[in-house]
Input
Amino acid sequence: MPLEFKPYPPPGQRQLGRELLRSLTRKLIVLALLAAVLVLWAGWQYSRRQSADSETLGDYRINGDAVSVLLVQPDVSLDLGTGLRGDYTAQLARALAMQFEQLGYRTRSVPARSDEERFGQASRLEDKDAAIAHQAQIAQSLREAGAPVLRVSLDGLDNDGAVVTAHRYKVELLDPRTLQPSWRAVLIWREGRSQSIALLWHLRRNRLPPPLWDSLATLAVERMREDGKLPSGTIH
Output
């Protein structure tokens, strides 16, 4: 079988091939850097979708096997709206109680404010007396129960026009003897692109992200443990 000799590419063609290879390599490096920057940016946005700022105010910590959840609902006159952009204070209180039930605690939910106070009807003397009597009754009930008190309240809503951009909720640990806070955390939930990225992240596993109140309740429990106010693990 006769040998076949392939002609060696001319120098100009070899140089062109090397330049094309270098150009392709540079483009791939740029695309890889852009992808890395995009991943870092998405991770930063995802991490800031919620946050907690906590402070320790005293030595009292959760003990025993029972917890009272004190719900401070905002005034109806604030016109916070309803639906997906409304106030989730009650849902957060229920989610927090459920978290403690899963840890083995007995929970009791208590309304901090009377209907007269919430609906702005405390201007009349009889309604004002009813609101004061309700608060005194609740305070006495909490002291008699002797269980740690978790007070949940709305700290504020940030708005951009008619759109809510951030929710702020306050969770406080109260000593039942004095009803003074020994620990406080402000939980922040940010709307917008952070939640869109969280949705995409969970959809990759064919599931939806946890709702606002469940996610913030988990964050509050984690922060209480980090600050030494809640024992680790379950109690049963």
